[in-house]
Amino acid sequence: MSTLDSEKLPAPARLGRRELLKLPAMAAAYGLLPRSAMALPAATGAPFDEADPEGTKIAIKLTVQHTTDEELLFLKQIGLRWLHADFGDAASYDFIKATRDGFAQYGLTIDCALMEAYRSKRIQLGQPGRDEDIEKFNSFLTNCGRLGIRTSHIDFHPGNTYTTNMITTNRGYTAREFSVADFRGKVEKQIFDRDYTAQEIWANYAYFLDAVLPVAEKAGIKLAHHPDDPPISPMNGVAKVFINYAGYKHAEVVVS
């Protein structure tokens, strides 16, 4: 079914509470849900409040340097409470603090902070100078921890291509498109001086985390690792290792 076809469908009928409670049993009866799932015990205790440290946060990612007061006011007006803040290439303690305090005036809290140093090609390709870039990222983590920011975002896919085309939807907004066929046939090229194997990327990742994890743990920061998207490997002559669940499981071995 195309996007246009789906938009022509009538809105689904409202289901009452009794009907909603019947859905899992109906799904199991038709083989759409494993019957073992019906045997799971009901959740006990009160659900996590959104503000609980372990609670899931619904946030929006924004680039700190390009965010206006009007945008922050709009986010407050629609009821948003949490932010994923991209600080770009550098951010001092004073700048992070000023940003955090400025957001707080609109009732917004930085739940996750991002600083681009970890994306350094010197880190991700294992080149000379990576220790300097790692130290820069570690300083950022330490400062975030001092300011009560609980999470920082990382990823590890040098040589990645996110988009093969920009399209305008029927609703009039611009969106990114990725086509595997277009990428392989029209876009892909070797962007570094040579190919990089999965073994090399894993080694560089292990070196990075060996230096970063102790600092993150001391600062009370959790590292949120974004998967490789799109999930295909290799890309542009570089192996990608976080394209599926197995990659995350292997990471536990690599850094243990």
* Average pLDDT rating: 86
* Helicity, as a percent range: 40-55%
What would you call the shape? globular
Question: Strand arrangement, largest sheet?
Answer: 1-2-3-4-7
Tally the helices.
Answer: 10
Q: First CA to last CA: what distance?
A: 46 Å
Q: Beta-strand level of the residues, as a percent range?
A: 5-15%
Whole-angstrom Rg: 22 Å
Structural class: alpha/beta
Largest sheet: 5 strands, parallel
- What is the succession of H and E elements? HHHEHEHEHHEEEHHEH
Uncertain segments are 1-15, 17-31, 35-40
- Give the tally of β-strands: 7
Describe this structure in words.
- This protein is α/β, with parallel strands linked by helices.
- Helices cover 41% and strands 12% of the residues.
- The protein has ten helices and seven strands.
- The strands form two sheets. It has a five-stranded parallel β-sheet.
- α7 runs parallel beside α9.
- It is globular.
- 20% of the residues are buried.
- The N terminus is likely disordered.
